[in-house]
């Protein structure tokens, strides 16, 4: 009999024994005689109800008043299509009561408490102690986890450290005083700690991000050191939980760093997720590392709890899904790794965490086959779930450890939701066993159904994925690019007119705002004569370019996109040095530039098809677009590649010829863009690169009668000036100039009482401070509803305070300089006003050298303050307090701008209200308000924020064209060909 | 045996006899051993080839040079998909020759001559005489028709009269000298004329149009009188041909009038078409009339030759198709009318015109059954067709008359094309007999296949049909409406602000430009205070109106459309009196207004649906539109209902509130529009009616900071002024004003050497002179290629000169006053310049009273003349000569305007070139350049002709809105509901 046949046989035997021990017992959550079981049952049967339930449970603990609970309950459930009959009866019965607004909240909160108690050990250390004690009397070991909010600041990370220390310092000694229980307190090699704590690395460093690989490892392991020391002192084992895939590699590195830092600590452990194909290699790597360093550690083998998250977040970024899509593959991988883990038992303390009888019995079988005693391994299960399974394993004489979180309900919610997801997942073992009542036939070797359909490959436009800096090769590519670009700084860049490169005597110096002494480049400046030449050249080239087919024009864009992909890291590196973007912001800018090229190319192919309105015999109508003529593109420095790429490519692909005048602050980036178009063979004269001062070159070009349109992105003042200049039509001008302008914003985010503050603080922080607030979409006002104002303000202030400031070529600096001295001075003035007029919750200085201004948060400002009303374009955030959502909306709308806005809320009604009434071009719900993606969130505002239709949207290109109608009478001598 | 059984039996016997006489003979056109038969065969088998062939034959005689023939031949046939193999061989053989450019034209012209000779008796009267003589020797009688160009002027009609007189005065005496042939020269009642002439009423009066019912009858019958007199003198019979259905009723009336005018003329005849269901009633009517007046006349019963035309033109106008769609129904109707005609033989001289053996034998059978001698009836067939059938009928002893046209090839082309259509029509008897080789089984009683599929009812937007003034009830409805409106002239009209009617002391007097002493109405004038109030009211109403659903807003438009339909004639009558439109122009304006309401309503429902860009898990994106705010609509007087309806309804339906300032010259019309919206319940404040002087009220409103957009149609000067005012943004203004403007045009039509001059002259005339040229789309330059310049100029000049001028409430005046004294003076100045600078081919004065300026045509003007360059907005047309199409295009494009343009050409390449290179918003091919239809020819220009996307097109409404994006992150605690 082969190994596998033998193990299969053994596993089946074990399973039979387990089933016999389980008998008819049903886990609490599947007991349909009880309400919890009923609700789980409904959620299993109805996806819509499941979603509502999860969302309602998520927000419920946050709600502070009965009326809020009652209102939200109605919002979530009053329009349910199909309420289960049993629930309907209960609701009907209830609805006869007149005090519903009191009764319903009471019932709901009681239900929530009961649900929480099912999974969470209690709020305090004392609660936890009594839970652990109760476990012990049931013969159960425990791993304690402290649930936590998302750690957004150093303070919050510190708080976490303290709570873990408290747990260990209180429970460690307590555990030592417990009576000895051999099965729990020792394995085959001797005594083991009586208590295990599980922790997540993200709780210990708010700036943890693999983009800053070394810094993340260093800071996190440094912050975790006291816990490891305490664990060692108190005889507690520590298991590092595994979270999202994005953090997997860095988590493993942190784990390794911790082991090296704590050479004498014997009981470290790590979790490995078998839904990741990569885990097999990770284990091999860890095992080799352990052998090399002569260390032994625990492995908790799990299936993985972030499946929903991974399948949502990765495709959203355009990244591959890192998890098995098929549950059976995960199960099979679990068995394969079970064998591998047990094969390495010399360096591993194995723990198998599962509720799946097959997975458990398979582990027992492999261990038995390997001649291991029962106490050489342990099984781990989540407290509150799968009780019959847990008891059966215990009865079989194995050590079972319950995984149990302790802490408050709000921070525990993520854990709770994961459990509800798990229990209501249609393929889960528990659901199939105890809801579908499938018996031992579930227990078989995992079968791969190869017919499983992969999601179809998408066609058409797809956003260019941002770079995954959790991958080492991407980080080193960026380091290499930075080095290369830095070596080549200080070059001279010419104008490009027709096919000539013109080096002028007068030049603009572009410098690194983080190191003003570093010259990025010396860029030629066009005078009036050269500007006129550029117009003539564009006019001349227009004749042929207009007649180039839309497909052919689009092909230039696609080739430019391909070229940008090749130069991706170098372009990003240049942005980092020229305008002070962070790695991720710079990378995102290139991805967006590629998006514009790919999107507008496809859009032009779509719009290039004439339509045939009406279907009447004897009449052939055509409706199609033609270019406007010669366009002037004036682009800003803050998205130094993406924005000009969008503006230039839109103007070009629609058949116009273009004079491109980039901002002087990013004109080296601008030159590279022009050069890319040259590289891909754009005919001479179709695109001229004409940098120069706005007051001279810009003004001249805007008023030139042969310029047919101006596409501008920049400040409101300049935008309005262009509009008024363009509004004057010269006597001999052929047409009225069209102006397409994206200007400023004074964008607000509203945070209501139902908001998830973890998300809200992070969202506001990113919106306000990414790229130092120098985005037209940036949040500069956050309007918080009274009841959550204080909490929010504190967390936000701490979070802002935790940002690392410095030159952004170092990936550990998430916050860089502002773009130049003038900007810095302007922002500084606002800060001074803020300090005078309001209350500076945070006023953080930046480094001395470079144009650094740290993050600032102001509260209690009068509504007429310039900080509340004017666009600052820097890292200055205004916090406003509103009594209600309505008043928050009023404040939010009280602006001349209408660009972006946001709301953090979990009230469906509030969300609808904000969508309807918040006058902004781009509204974001429960996410940051920056980072609009081409094709998905067409971007642009109205009022003083812009003129025209949204960039990256279906109407954008139309603006660069006029429409034409042709109607042919096909009737000749009474005869018309049929249609 | 019943009548029908007996007749069926008899008919079958006759048919058998005919078939036996026919033997194996094949008509020339179906003789596939000869090239004519081959070509007909290919055309039958290949619809594409058929269309190319017909079009090429149509243009061929017009071409003056070999190179033109060769070029056109290539254009039509070089890209044929499937050339018949036999032709391919011929072509291949030919293509080896090096002198193709000479050989091909020679072959083609020879072929055309041969084809023409097949059908046409010759060019001159002498030719005709010899043909008739030849016929007589073959025992054939004849009906002679003089082919003609479309008659576009009194001169051309006069020319026609002369040619008919010449024919009769030459051929009449000649015929009398012929030897007697009893079968041909007498019927059962005695001698009959030896010659018949056929004629079309349209050839005798260029202004023939049923809208001017009495005038058309009077003038046409007056013009025909000399012919009837000559016929009587020369012993010639006259048959009035039947043309398009639209002219049927008036033709019958003209026929009756002629009979009354010529009481002693014994041989009038008329054609009746059995493809018209109405013909049965027409015959009954005619028969009763004849009995009452004791007259006898000939009836030529035909199937009908305008089937293709009727099935194209009527649906294009939204009118019902007046002909049977199924050929079998036409055949059955023919038999039914055969019986009826023969039943009335006491007052009818019956002639059965058909090539269908069944139809012919059925007529023989009915006659025989009725005991009529063979010579009591006659059969008529077209010369050159169905020779075996004709001979068989002759052999059976019946009188056969050949219908034969005489004249030039170009004017004969319409006749020739009808014959080719007939011979290649898949259901034609001849084609089925001689191409499909179906035998006597074709001869059966016509069967109606009830399963014949009717064209599906159209869904969605359909243009409102214009009124068919050939119908008596429509003419009297218009007369009634004019009377009613005229009785109620001179009222006072208030402003409408919010829901208040405000009568001001100062008023604008609106007068009838045709009778300046006639006061149409006294309209209140808003001052600044009232204008401000209107803005406030609109701003207030905006809040609720914005939130009204798109469907609900659209419903107001649909109700307004219904209301307009009810008031249709009264509104048109008002336009006639207030601004001097003709009946048809006024009627078309109301139809267009209804179109805007129906189209924009549907468009808003379409655009009101949010779209969901991108499909990514965990992300819900919405993209939708919202109104801009308060809009100012400034409308012109020249389309006094349609244009303001379009502008107002577009602004309203998109959710904006509107201040509507109509032109002072059409403010009574404007008031009615506002009143209609009030009637259908538009909430107060959503639409304000605020007439007033542009320099004061208009200026104030345009610069008001609370006005978000201006929608303007009018002159370029005012448009540019509005753009420049709107371009200045006030310090406290919320947004940049959007301006949507339709301004002027200096529109050109190009006529190339391949143009069909009948169509070109008519198209240019209508484009230039409809509504006295007071349309922004009107043609004011016609650029004619050298080789056709003289012909074209002469015909155009004569055609323009034939227009009847006078007050347009009289439907016989196709040309009315210009709108006011100022306009008249301005136009007069251009005329004076024209006389100085160029050559006035026509300078026709108008009546003294009223603001009349007759049509003017100028040639030989220098290109820099103001007449060539400036918009005149009156009945002044400039004729330009161009050596080539390329230079014509250059001239056409040499304008600051780019609104409409046209080309008359039958060269596919030239048409493509003009489409590609003629810079106009609306280009029309082979039709007039005015009268764009909503939804079919979206309307608007660029350069100095307008700002924005086309009215009545898919992008128009978008201009009144901005777009919004909402992006919701639906991921909560790692869970997102599936999409």
From TrEMBL, chains A, B:
Pfam families: Aldedh, Pro_dh, PutA_N. Residues 15-119 form the Proline utilization A N-terminal domain. The active site is at residues 742, 776. Residues 506-965 form the Aldehyde dehydrogenase domain. Pathway: Amino-acid degradation; L-proline degradation into L-glutamate; L-glutamate from L-proline: step 2/2. It catalyses: L-glutamate 5-semialdehyde + NAD(+) + H2O = L-glutamate + NADH + 2 H(+). GO terms for biological process: L-proline catabolic process to L-glutamate. This is L-glutamate gamma-semialdehyde dehydrogenase. It comes from Desulfomonile tiedjei (strain ATCC 49306 / DSM 6799 / DCB-1).
């Amino acid at each position: 009999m082969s190994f596998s046949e033998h193990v299969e046989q053994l596993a089946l035997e074990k399973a039979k024994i387990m089933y016999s021990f389980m008998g008819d017992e049903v886990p609490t959550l599947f007991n349909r005689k009880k309400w919890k079981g009923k609700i789980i049952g409904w959620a299993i049967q109805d996806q819509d109800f499941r979603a509502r339930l999860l969302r309602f449970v998520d927000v419920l603990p946050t709600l502070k008043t009965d009326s809020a609970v009652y209102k939200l309950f109605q919002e979530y459930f009053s329009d349910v299509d199909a309420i289960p009959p049993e629930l309907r009866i209960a609701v009907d019965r209830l609805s006869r009561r007149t005090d519903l607004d009191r009764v319903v909240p009471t019932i709901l909160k009681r239900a929530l408490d009961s649900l929480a108690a099912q999974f969470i050990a209690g709020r305090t250390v004392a609660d936890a102690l009594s839970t652990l004690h109760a476990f012990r009397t049931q013969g159960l070991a425990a791993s304690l986890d402290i649930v936590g909010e998302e750690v957004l600041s150093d303070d919050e990370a510190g708080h976490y450290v303290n709570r873990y220390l408290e747990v260990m310092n209180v429970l460690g000694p307590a555990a030592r005083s417990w009576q000895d229980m051999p099965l729990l307190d020792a394995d085959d090699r001797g005594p083991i700690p009586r208590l295990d704590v599980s922790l997540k690395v993200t709780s210990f460093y708010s700036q943890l991000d693999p983009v800053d690989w070394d810094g993340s490892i260093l800071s996190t392991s440094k912050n975790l050191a006291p816990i490891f020391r305490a664990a060692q002192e108190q005889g507690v084992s520590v298991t590092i939980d595994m979270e999202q895939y994005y953090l997997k590699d860095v988590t493993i590195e942190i784990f390794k760093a911790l082991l090296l830092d704590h050479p004498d600590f014997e009981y470290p452990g790590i979790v490995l997720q078998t839904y990741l194909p990569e885990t097999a290699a990770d284990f091999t790597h860890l095992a080799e590392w352990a052998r090399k360093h002569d260390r032994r550690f625990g492995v908790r083998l799990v299936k993985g709890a972030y499946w929903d998250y991974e399948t949502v977040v990765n495709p959203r970024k355009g990244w591959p899904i890192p998890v098995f899509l098929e549950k059976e593959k995960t199960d099979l991988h679990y068995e394969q790794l079970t064998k591998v883990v047990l094969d390495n038992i010399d360096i591993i303390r194995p723990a198998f965490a599962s509720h799946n009888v097959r997975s458990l019995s398979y582990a027992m079988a492999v261990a038995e086959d390997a001649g291991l005693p029962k106490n050489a391994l342990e099984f781990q299960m989540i407290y509150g779930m799968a009780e019959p399974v847990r008891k059966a394993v215990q009865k079989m004489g194995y050590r079972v450890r319950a995984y149990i979180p302790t802490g408050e309900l709000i921070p525990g919610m993520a854990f709770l939701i994961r459990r509800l997801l798990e229990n209501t997942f249609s393929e889960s073992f528990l659901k199939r066993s105890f809801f579908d009542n499938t018996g031992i036939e579930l227990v078989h070797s995992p079968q791969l159904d190869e017919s499983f359909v992969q999601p179809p490959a998408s066609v058409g436009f797809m956003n260019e994925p941002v770079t995954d800096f959790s991958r080492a090769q991407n980080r080193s590519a960026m380091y290499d690019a930075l080095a290369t670009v830095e070596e080549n700084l200080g070059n001279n860049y010419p104008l490009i007119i027709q096919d000539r490169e013109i080096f002028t005597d007068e030049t603009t110096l572009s410098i690194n705002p983080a190191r003003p002494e570093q010259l990025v480049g010396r860029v030629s400046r066009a005078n009036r004569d050269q500007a006129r030449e550029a117009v003539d050249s564009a006019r001349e080239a227009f004749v042929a370019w207009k007649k180039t087919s839309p497909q052919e024009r689009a092909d230039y864009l696609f080739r430019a996109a391909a070229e940008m992909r090749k130069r991706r890291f170098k372009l990003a590196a240049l942005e980092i040095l020229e305008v002070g973007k962070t790695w991720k912001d710079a990378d995102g800018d290139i991805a967006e530039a590629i998006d514009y090229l790919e999107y507008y190319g496809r859009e032009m192919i779509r719009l290039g098809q004439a339509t045939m309105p009406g279907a009447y015999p004897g009449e052939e109508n055509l409706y199609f677009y033609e270019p406007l003529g010669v366009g002037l593109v004036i682009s800003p420095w803050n998205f130094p590649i993406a924005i000009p790429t969008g503006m230039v490519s839109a103007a070009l692909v629609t058949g116009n010829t273009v004079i491109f005048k980039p901002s002087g602050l990013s004109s080296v980036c601008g030159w590279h863009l022009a050069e890319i178009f040259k590289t891909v063979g754009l005919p001479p004269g179709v695109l001229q690169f004409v940098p120069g001062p706005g007051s001279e070159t810009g003004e001249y070009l805007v008023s030139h009668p042969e310029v047919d349109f101006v596409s501008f992105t920049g400040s409101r003042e300049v935008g309005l000036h262009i509009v008024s200049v363009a509004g004057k039509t010269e006597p001999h001008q052929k047409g009225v100039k069209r102006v397409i302008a994206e200007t400023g914003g004074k964008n607000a985010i509203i945070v209501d009482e139902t908001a998830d503050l973890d998300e809200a603080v992070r969202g506001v922080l990113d919106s306000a401070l990414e790229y130092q607030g120098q985005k037209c979409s940036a949040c500069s006002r956050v309007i918080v509803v009274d009841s959550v104002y204080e909490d929010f303000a504190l967390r936000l202030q701490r979070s802002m305070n935790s940002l690392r400031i410095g030159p952004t070529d170092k990936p550990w600096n998430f916050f860089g300089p502002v773009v130049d001295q003038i900007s810095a001075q302007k922002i500084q003035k606002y800060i001074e006003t803020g300090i005078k007029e309001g209350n500076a919750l945070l006023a953080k200085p930046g480094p001395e050298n470079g144009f650094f201004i740290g993050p600032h948060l102001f509260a209690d400002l009068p509504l007429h303050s310039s900080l509340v009303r004017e666009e600052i374009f820097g890292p200055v955030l205004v916090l406003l307090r509103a009594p209600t959502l309505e008043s928050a909306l009023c404040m939010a709308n009280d602006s001349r701008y209408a660009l972006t806005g946001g709301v953090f809320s979990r009230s469906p009604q509030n969300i609808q209200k904000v969508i309807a009434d918040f006058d902004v071009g781009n509204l974001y719900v429960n996410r940051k308000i920056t980072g609009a993606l081409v094709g998905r969130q067409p971007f642009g505002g109205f009022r003083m924020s812009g003129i025209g239709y949204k960039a990256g949207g279906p109407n954008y290109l139309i603006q660069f064209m006029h429409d034409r109608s042709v109607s042919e009478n096909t009737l000749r001598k009474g005869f018309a060909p049929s249609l």
